[in-house]
Design goal:
globular; 6 helices; homotetramer; Vcp-like ATPase, Chain A, domain 2; alpha/beta; four-stranded antiparallel beta sheet
Chain lengths: 259, 259, 259, 259
């Protein structure tokens, strides 16, 4: 799909161990400082992805090609975290894929936007609403880093004032008041289009489900997803000690043809 | 993305309620029998997706455009069930997207294959190994129904004898002995390529993780995912009473450049 | 603690396998019919607990001495199920033990009452309110079977009209409107006494927590407990496929000295 | 059950908030230092439990009567944590209650011992094995503080060398190699006696279950318990963000009369 050699301008994931990784842009002649010494980018350029490079203090880093999940995790800042597990389910529930036209609100720092763009490319498009300008700027930066900005239209608008697109395949809501957007989502969607909403509290879910049922949506369903890591080692295998107990609830529905 | 009117040859999801849906092919002049009476396909042809049609006994069905999740759920037969939640995570962990080249083993009835094809189209390709011919036939039927067969090469071969492709982006394992495929997966993958394995038992996970760590993979991680439905109704909101407690563990790793 | 030989009048748990057990009273000269043939009680009398007895069709049953958990599971009928896991936590949160005086509402069929009586005996006492007379009769039967009726005062009264006891150690609420009982629970409790409420819906929990915080209780805490069975067999170990996803939420608080 | 006024020598739980509590012994003329100033014990003596006392810097603490759960949580040091949720289930599964005779191994710092003693008093007895003398000393201190030391026989012995008691109601195992104790547990138990083992890893569980099935136990069952806190507040209700994902597996079995 893409070049196997690390070249100037690429983003690489410097991997020390599972807890310590850095997503950096390779710039000729420059160095990157970590808490385990610095790395010279010139030592990376021209090498194969997956190669090892040593810091000046002798720690070995592996230069990985970033995956979608890496971009998502590194994009997450400042706003509520939508974990890859939730993003994966949101994408699956939405039914979108290459070529889909999707409305998203709100953009936040672009973690979910990155995933949506990744899956609708090359012919689809994401229309992402965010009324807070500083978030949009961060999102744009994150989308550029993931090389996905061309598939997204970032819109500095309040989505509760209306959705400008029509005949879209899916509307994805990740904002504090999703129920306010339900009527305009109905109008924006093509028949059988999907709506997926992500909310941390029960009260948001109840209001959203009520709005969906009152506005021509059917097949409404709410789930939560718990992901637990396993420590896997012969003779010591066990679930990990700590986990994220809650991120949010995912609500799904489909548009009926006539309300 | 596709036509909004139901036409002869389309597959529609006849929706009575959340528990009772039928994935059927629309054939002019024919009828479809349900436990709530029969439906004449001629009454569907030319209607908008999302429209309502009544059976001869007066029950109303909504004719929905099937989503990926519907194809997955309806494809599941005869083999162990890989739930949409697991498929969503497998896809996310793998890092694949439009254009990716992916090896899958085994095909089974094609539920996961359907999802992989959905996300790699239009320019990517899934190479799917299955040594049991009768499964391959079912998988082919399911892929055709989902209109995704063109993006998949179904291979009636035993993957433990070797993977024929090279420089692939990801190898996805959903078979009883994933550890046996790890060395050839390493050879088939491009640098930083991903491997994702799905197994129901702990013992399979331990053997697979050992094989990964011994064969040049890094960043190995195993998770399990629990999805719980919520019954959402003002004044009665609560998690649902029953859930699937276990489907399987998902193990992920990346290929290092040099073992 | 008690005689090891099975004697007339004892209750035994006839165990065919983990899914098929019968809690029966041993009566001389009589037989007990199962779907695997009948058993003559005379063959049990005088034998050690844990002995095997064969039905007339040759199936082997083990005559077990019933444990608290067996009485609880067999007492559960007709009303919402309070699982042993929840009962265990309710007892732990309440802080009660031998000698405690406890108010319970409502009695239901006596599953939780059985556990409370088991732990407060021989010197403690359970005051259990239930306004539906037919439930009280079932509860009494279940308590007698578990040989615990002497430690319980079954009260055919509506607890929302007030609690008659005072200086009790704990108040346990398992009814539809726990928040209505909070003010009288405060009066009935000794200082630092505990209140534990069990409710299936979120809305009940929110109302109860609000009532607790408004009525002189502190340290309020709500939890839910998920118990998952493991299938344990070398080479095939994995969590079980199905589980109960929800029974109810447990809310705990302590009485402050002065509101 | 016990005096309502705080008296010299009592243990009280000084409660600042849910995250900050202190279990202290009241000593006339002395003070207790917290990070929010110090408290004079003389101001507590003679007051009702549940009363409020201010530190010299004006922070209010409530003087609570410690519950079993408080003693357990404060006893937990230095060894693996057995959470109250697990202790509650272990007690329930074991079937023990007032009057039971129980063998425990190993004692650790006495958290589980405290619970066992609490439930078997006043006529039962806990025989607790621990070969590491320093742990036994801590356990003894913790049991004294909870006023339960009279119901426990602390034994500085290696339980894998044998159990000295016989005809006990239950054997509770919380040590690294429970399977080694299974044969002597069988001998120590009365017919239908119970064995409950707590282990963090899958491998321990498999070995223990194999030993149980090979040594005359039946009805073997393994579970794990997940407890999740709820943040309960009208309009903001949701599960808490973090939880303990794993403490250990609980395995239960009953002794058959003849192996």
């Amino acid at each position: 799909m893409s070049s196997q050699k690390i070249t100037e301008g690429d983003h690489v994931l410097l991997y020390l161990n599972q807890r310590k990784t850095y997503l950096v842009k390779v710039e000729a002649g420059k160095t990157f400082h970590t808490h385990k010494g610095f790395i010279k980018f010139d030592e990376l350029i021209g090498k194969e992805y997956g190669s090892t490079v040593a810091s000046n203090t002798g720690f070995e880093f592996i230069a990985l090609k970033p995956l979608l999940r890496d971009y998502i995790m590194k994009a997450v800042r400042r706003t509520q975290i939508t974990y890859p597990k939730d993003i994966a389910l949101i994408v699956m529930f939405s039914g979108i894929g290459p070529g889909s036209r999707v409305v998203e609100a709100g953009t936040g720092t672009g973690a979910l936007t990155t995933a949506l763009a990744h899956y609708v490319k090359p012919n689809g498009r994401v229309y992402s609403y965010e009324f807070r300008e500083e978030f949009l700027k961060t999102a744009e930066k994150n989308l550029k880093r993931a090389n996905l900005v061309d598939f997204v239209e970032l819109k500095n608008k309040d989505v509760t004032a209306g959705i400008e697109e029509s005949e879209v395949d899916a509307v994805i809501l990740d904002l504090a008041t999703p129920w306010l957007v339900v009527p305009s989502a109905y109008k924006a969607l093509k028949p059988c289009g999907t709506i997926v909403s992500f909310s941390p509290t029960i009260d948001q879910v109840v209001k959203t489900v009520e709005a969906l049922n009152a506005n021509g949506f059917i097949d409404t369903e709410t789930v939560e997803c718990l992901m637990r890591g396993m420590q896997t080692e012969r003779g010591k295998t066990r679930p990990q000690t700590l986990m994220t107990a809650h991120t949010g609830y995912i609500t799904f529905a489909r548009k009926k043809a006539v309300k």
